[in-house]
Amino acid sequence: MKLRLVVQRLTLALLVAASATVFAQTQPPDYWCPARGVAYGVSLKHAAEHMVHVDAVTRQPVGELQLPVWNALYQVRDFAVNVDRFEAYEGVPMWICDGCDALEARARKVNKSAWQFQSTGDNPCLTFSYDIHLDDPGPFGASASPEFSFFNWAEVLVYRPDERSAPVSVRLLDVPAAVSLRDGGVFGARTAEELAAPASAVATAPSYDRLVDAPAMLGKLYETSFVQDHTTYHLAVDSPEVDLATLGAMLRRITAAGNDWMHDHPCADYTFLFLVAHGSGRGGMEHACATTIDIPLAVMQQNVANASGISAHEFFHSWNVKRIRPRSLEPVDYTREQDSTALWFSEGVTSTVADILQSRAGINDERQALAQLAQTIGMLQSRPAHRTQSAEQSSLETWFDGYAAYRRPERSISYYTKGEVLGFLIDLEMRRLTNGHRSLRDLFLSMNRDAKAGVFFDDSEGVRVKLQELTGNDFRDFFTRYVSGTDEIPYDKFFSYVGLHLAVRATEQSYPGFTVARPMGRGVAIVRVDDGSPAAQAGLHAGDQILEADGKPARNFQQALRHHDPHTPLHLKIANPAGATRELDLAVLAHKIDEYQLEDVAGVTPAQMQHRRAFLRGDSEAE
């Protein structure tokens, strides 16, 4: 069927500022019809409606295209639900050739996220064209607007399952004026002037996997960079109200600590993308040589060091997760859930190392480091589910995180929290068994060498085997009790090596009459409201999200409760599931809780103190 009318409509909608003739002169002849892989055109013409138009061009008369069902979070989110319209036709995108004819090709949906296509003529190229609605902010989503856009490309671009490893290219079209771009290594950095030039808004990647591991941030950005340890570090923030110099200095210390601890620098270029004006305070997301960190502006303005923990965590993912990978997650399967028992190690022990890096960087002193560790232990112990759900089970069930019922304290623990505690306990055991000659650092150095050789570890068992190699102890009892099992942890037994005792004291804290949870990728949400409580009387319900507590972002809601006077109302800003917000002063109750502190044992020895200093800094005592 002739599509002249469609051609004219698309030409008007998608034509870039430069003429098609100029565009053709600035692109290689095979750009829009690559011999292998896919060439993408991404138009922001209708970004004001949060709508993006995609042309995916491939040189294959018959095949299949797939849009991932999950990305960034361990949650099936079915991104194809955002696809509004699709069609296929022979040849390159029609807007390139104003007035050309095109032959329709066959395209049909074969499941909720996949399409089959077939050419009906002799043209070797085929264009699959669709609109997709993007209105989920980063770092875990994709969004488009005239002022700011954020792309996790796996949530936007289809791929060919049979050519995932083939080269791909992306061209941005109709980019709003006066914005610049920074991404995690494919586009790099582009100014508004460069984006307006016909050839400059093109990025290439060796594979679809590499492309989707380089998120892009497009808007009014504020940037700086520094060079350290053979790596150039880029820093981009979406707000002028962040002290770039202070933030950059902190990141310099963290990256130096990480490279020194690992005797390695995995990337020649590494990018920190900070969302403070266009995010929702939901955490961070690691990528191959980049990270996106979502943290409220008010938190950053209070103290840039508030971003140190998440920055160290995401940076260490350059090794643990991006290179040191569990076999169960390799390769990534974009079409379904991938079960792994090792997230307690990949995520939780990454938090252990983040704490170590902050100590090595001089951001946390001994008092702060021990207080943070005691708080993490308290978070684990305060959830009744620590008696029924193991670290491995929590890893396997991460796909339930989107359900409020699963997030109840009686139902689940966090593999981040349990894993962070286990990381410190493994470190202590390694030190005790080897008289300080082996530590968590040796574990990661050895696993990093394996990963560089292309060896993926066999989930929890792979970690245990590596510990056996390094210490001569099989660690089976430890893993049976505390990793795959739910035995209560005898903290004093482990911490005695460094002269510490875990003190537990009952204290009074404000209790709002409801329980909250904050799973990765989501805000602080109410998961249960007590019958007859002031919260119930105020009309609060499970599913409501807490935006602010006492005028501060609710990211650290539990900490806000600890500092709130239980004899005065708690001022809350709440959003219901429909997005409607309201503010209220909520009467709170006095509630007895256990408070945890790590303190010196009676008669602590100089040797124990020496062990402790090495432990907190992640040093081997043989050094």
Short précis:
The protein has 623 residues and is α+β, with helices and mostly antiparallel strands. The protein contains 18 helices and 26 strands.
Record the SSE blueprint:
Layout: H1 4-14, H2 20-26, E1 38-43, E2 51-58, E3 62-66, E4 83-90, E5 106-111, E6 114-118, E7 126-133, E8 149-151, E9 168-173, E10 180-183, E11 189-190, H3 192-196, E12 202-205, H4 208-212, E13 216-219, E14 222-228, E15 231-237, H5 244-262, E16 269-275, E17 283-287, E18 290-294, H6 297-302, H7 308-316, H8 343-360, H9 366-381, H10 391-396, H11 415-433, H12 440-452, H13 459-471, H14 476-483, H15 491-495, E19 500-511, E20 514-517, E21 525-529, H16 534-537, E22 545-549, E23 552-553, H17 557-563, E24 570-575, E25 581-586, E26 589-600, H18 606-617
Parallel strand pairs: 1-9, 15-16, 16-18
Antiparallel strand pairs: 1-2, 2-7, 3-6, 4-7, 5-6, 8-13, 9-12, 10-11, 10-13, 14-15, 17-18, 19-26, 20-21, 22-23, 22-24, 24-25
